[in-house]
């Protein structure tokens, strides 16, 4: 296992550009940062608690190794997450086999259209974890680094298609952006989401370098990071809302009774009424009182709720 190749350093991202790291931590639904959404780090301090935001200074400097891919975590941590969050990662050969089926469906639907239509096709990885179905920089179960020409992710395939048909750097970046704008994924746990976002960013750099022999500019990376932060978002996939944002509503009787100062029969204070989230109570996707997650319609530039795309 080559930790240097599979573990992306937040310190390196910070050195490249503080804005780049801030973008990778951004939550466009809440206007804040993505949050931990796991109890795994709470022993490090209050700022690592379940609902706390992931801030740059919590994962850089001397704390630069706090977030690491699942395969580099202890066996105890892996087992705990599997029990608590049903976190099970998929070997690259299974991702390859299943993505081949997606490819066949896409190509069949397109009816022999050009490579541009393939790159523009919309794909989504649900509960994406570290996003092995989108980019396969390493095998998520063994930690083995995968050479760029053998990667099997859906975005990998799109970027290889761009590299095969485009030789101009500017045009390559334009089509790479098209590929990223049409590649989506959502995840509950904040550390996994950051790892997935980093993997997509690093893949952009690696494919660009493989094609042109140099690294893209920081401004190009920030632009890709913005797309990634919109298209890979933090969400409870069963409800379409920010994780744990649904809540009970507590209310009291609004009527106010004026009491006689000399009265002896004084009514007790009204008991608060607790109303559960209607969506949770009725198992109705469209009635939750949590914060519904937003994504961007890149064709119009408008923000839309993810659930509004579902039939």
* Total strands: 9
Tell me the strand percentage band: 5-15%
Q: Poorly predicted ranges (pLDDT <50, ≥5 residues)?
A: none
> Order of strands across the biggest sheet?
3-4-5
The shape, in one word, is globular
Largest sheet: 3 strands, parallel
Q: What is the CA-atom radius of gyration, in angstroms?
A: 23 Å
Order of helices and strands: HHHEEHHHEHHEHHEEEHEE
Question: How many separate domains make up the residues?
Answer: 1
CA-to-CA gap between the ends?
43 Å
Fraction of helical residues = 25-40%
Class computed from helices, strands and strand pairing: mainly alpha
Mean pLDDT: 89
Separate helix tally: 11
Describe this structure in words.
With 311 residues, the chain is mostly helical. The chain has one domain (3-234). Helices cover 39% and strands 9% of the residues. Strand 1 and strand 2 form a beta hairpin. It starts with a helix and ends in a 6-residue tail after the last strand. The relative contact order is 0.13. The model has no long low-confidence stretch (mean pLDDT 89).
């Amino acid at each position: 296992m080559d930790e240097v190749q599979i573990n992306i350093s937040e310190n390196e991202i910070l050195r490249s550009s503080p804005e780049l790291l801030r973008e990778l931590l951004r939550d466009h639904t809440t206007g804040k940062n993505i949050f931990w959404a796991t109890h795994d780090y709470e022993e490090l301090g209050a700022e690592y608690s379940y609902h706390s935001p992931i801030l740059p200074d919590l994962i850089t400097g001397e704390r630069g190794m706090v977030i690491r891919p699942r395969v580099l975590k202890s066996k105890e941590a892996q087992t705990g997450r599997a029990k608590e969050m049903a976190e099970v990662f998929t070997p690259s050969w299974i991702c390859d086999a299943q993505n081949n089926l997606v490819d066949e469906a896409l190509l069949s639907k397109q009816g022999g259209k050009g490579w541009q239509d393939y790159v523009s096709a919309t794909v989504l990885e649900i509960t994406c974890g570290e996003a092995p179905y989108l980019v396969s920089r390493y095998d998520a179960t063994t930690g083995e680094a995968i050479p760029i020409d053998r990667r099997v992710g859906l975005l990998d395939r799109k970027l290889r298609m761009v590299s095969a048909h485009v030789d101009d750097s500017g045009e390559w970046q334009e089509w790479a952006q098209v590929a990223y704008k049409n590649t989506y994924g959502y995840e509950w746990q904040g550390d996994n989401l950051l790892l997935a976002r980093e993997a997509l960013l690093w893949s952009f750099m690696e494919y660009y370098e493989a094609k042109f022999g140099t690294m893209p500019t920081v401004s190009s990376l920030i632009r890709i990071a913005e797309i990634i932060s919109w298209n890979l978002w933090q969400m409870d996939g069963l409800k379409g809302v920010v994780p744990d944002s649904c809540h009970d509503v507590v209310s009291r009787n609004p009527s106010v009774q004026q009491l006689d100062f000399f009265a002896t029969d004084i009514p007790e204070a009204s008991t608060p009424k607790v109303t559960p989230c209607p969506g949770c109570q009725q198992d109705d996707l469209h009635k939750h009182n949590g914060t519904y997650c937003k994504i961007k319609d890149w064709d119009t530039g408008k923000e839309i709720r993810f659930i509004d795309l579902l039939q």
